[in-house]
Recover the amino acids of this structure.
């Protein structure tokens, strides 16, 4: 007997067979990856998407990771797409990653969008661990971000901050958008320090940088399926970012050329581009001479470092003080007591503001602007706590969850700056329950710079003004929702009414 199967049925059967075959391969690969290795515990994964459904369902990844870690533990394995992630959520495990096994975990993953924006991942923050990174990091630590260099830019910070006070005073009694004012001034400081005063591109650069950074927030699907090369070609974010990057490059090259052609003696103050050009000249005949693109990458580091994170800390600090009027009062009393003799705030007496420094620390505990730090990647296979971590595993350290760990922090969710007064706990990367700047080899090299542009504006805002919420809103009603992006700031701009304090 002959069996007749219509042509459409044959196509259907072949398609079904192929589908089952592909599914079988995916499940086999997924099982193979998971079953032979004793990975840290984690939620059950679905083929192809892994745990993406769990992460995507939450608006903020650091919140979702904290909830999952409560169930699966402080060393948790997640599969996002086809990539393995380890999520670290306790001080003990953070120490394992960033101290005990720092050398294994000091690489950064090669992510599509950050690679495009950062001259093929040649900025310090995203470059592969190796000789190039070491050379740039050394320049950064010794030349660009040293305490001495940061101190040399004091006048710029003081001038910009006194302009901030003037512009706020001009709107006394009416609602101001403090978010925009702080962002603008911090950007102004960073631009003057990096490029010098004469720069005509400041505003264009700012807009192009904002556009580029807005595209970097979140996880790019391409980075979760590195084996599917076609995704790289069709990514819309990639096309947009390439355009923004070209615009930024033209401006940066123009700034460098301008510095090269103008006479150094004509300019009174040395800016970061001058410093970098000097280093470039000195290194000209060395084994690894610095190219113009390398210089542009370092300038970008300063902008993303200075321009994105520090204003977030100022605005969270102000928000918490508005929400906690007793803290605001105590901080104001201190600043006014210290500076009343002078009648204005400068940097000379900032070291006396013990309580304000604690406010800054407490702000960074509850609101680290990089709650998951910057992702790392393991360079080789390694064992942690009896679990196996394969090479090339991406690692995220949940500094936000660690800063709220009730085993280390009494009333962990409350804003209590006094916990830091007389406490030896610091953000220098040795106290693993408090790591807003990370720790180990890849720790933030810009702490000195960052603190200088957080403490001064806060001291100014507290010294010169009392603050009220608009529309008769009560202090406790201030919205503290977080935004989602490359850094985590306030979702809604902070609008407040300044009342100028008149001193005789
Ligand atoms: C409140 C302000 C800031 C915060 C919260 C912050 C936080 C961080 C964090 C968490 C990391 C990753 C650390 C790790 O992987 O362990 C980092 C890296 C870095 N930060 Fe900052 N940062 C701030 C300001 C700055 C400033 C002002 C600069 C420079 C002007 C800067 C430059 C860098 C650089 C270059 C890296 C990459 C280091 C490397 O990979 O070797 N940061 N920062």
């Amino acid at each position: 007997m002959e069996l007749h199967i219509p042509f459409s049925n044959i196509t259907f059967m072949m398609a079904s067979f192929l589908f089952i075959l592909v599914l079988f391969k995916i499940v086999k690969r997924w099982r193979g990856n998971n079953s032979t290795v004793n990975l840290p515990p984690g939620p059950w994964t679905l083929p192809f998407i892994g745990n993406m459904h769990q992460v995507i369902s939450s608006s903020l990844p650091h919140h979702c990771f904290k909830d999952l870690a409560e169930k699966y533990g402080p060393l948790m394995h997640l599969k996002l797409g086809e990539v393995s992630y380890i999520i670290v959520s306790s001080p003990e495990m953070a120490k394992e990653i960033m101290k005990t096994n720092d050398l294994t975990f000091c690489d950064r993953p090669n992510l599509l969008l950050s690679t495009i924006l950062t001259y093929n991942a040649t900025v310090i923050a995203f470059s592969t661990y190796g000789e190039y990174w070491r050379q740039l990091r050394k320049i950064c630590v010794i030349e660009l971000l040293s305490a001495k260099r940061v101190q040399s830019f004091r006048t710029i910070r003081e001038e910009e901050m006194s302009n901030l006070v003037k512009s706020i005073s001009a709107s006394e009694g009416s609602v101001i958008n403090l978010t925009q004012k702080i962002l603008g001034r911090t950007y102004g400081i960073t631009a003057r320090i990096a490029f010098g005063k004469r720069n005509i591109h400041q505003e264009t650069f700012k807009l192009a940088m904002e556009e580029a950074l807005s595209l970097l927030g979140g996880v790019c699907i391409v980075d979760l399926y590195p084996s599917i090369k076609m995704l790289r070609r069709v990514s819309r974010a990639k096309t947009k970012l390439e355009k923004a990057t070209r615009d930024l490059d033209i401006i940066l090259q123009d700034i460098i050329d301008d510095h090269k052609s103008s006479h150094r003696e004509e300019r009174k103050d040395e800016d970061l581009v001058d410093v970098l050009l000097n280093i470039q000249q000195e290194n000209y005949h060395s084994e690894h001479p610095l190219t113009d693109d390398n210089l542009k990458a370092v300038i970008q580091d300063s902008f993303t470092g200075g321009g994105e994170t520090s204003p977030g800390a100022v605005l969270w600090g102000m928000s918490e003080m508005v929400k906690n009027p007793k803290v605001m009062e105590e901080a104001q009393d201190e600043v006014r007591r210290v500076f009343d003799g002078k009648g204005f705030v400068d940097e000379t007496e900032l070291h006396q503001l013990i309580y304000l420094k604690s406010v800054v620390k407490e702000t960074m505990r509850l609101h680290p602007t990089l709650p998951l730090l910057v992702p790392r990647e393991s360079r080789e296979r390694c064992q942690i706590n009896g679990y196996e971590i394969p090479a090339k595993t991406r690692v995220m350290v949940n500094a936000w969850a660690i800063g709220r760990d009730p085993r280390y922090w009494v009333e962990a969710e409350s804003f209590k700056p006094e916990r830091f007064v007389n406490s030896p706990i610091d953000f220098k990367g040795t106290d693993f329950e408090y790591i807003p700047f990370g720790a180990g080899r890849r720790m933030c090299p810009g702490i000195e710079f960052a603190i200088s542009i957080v403490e001064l504006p806060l001291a100014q805002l507290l010294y010169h003004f009392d603050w009220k919420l608009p529309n008769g809103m009560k202090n406790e009603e201030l919205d503290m929702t977080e935004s989602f992006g490359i850094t985590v700031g306030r979702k809604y701009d902070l609008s407040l009414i300044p009342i100028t304090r008149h001193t005789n």
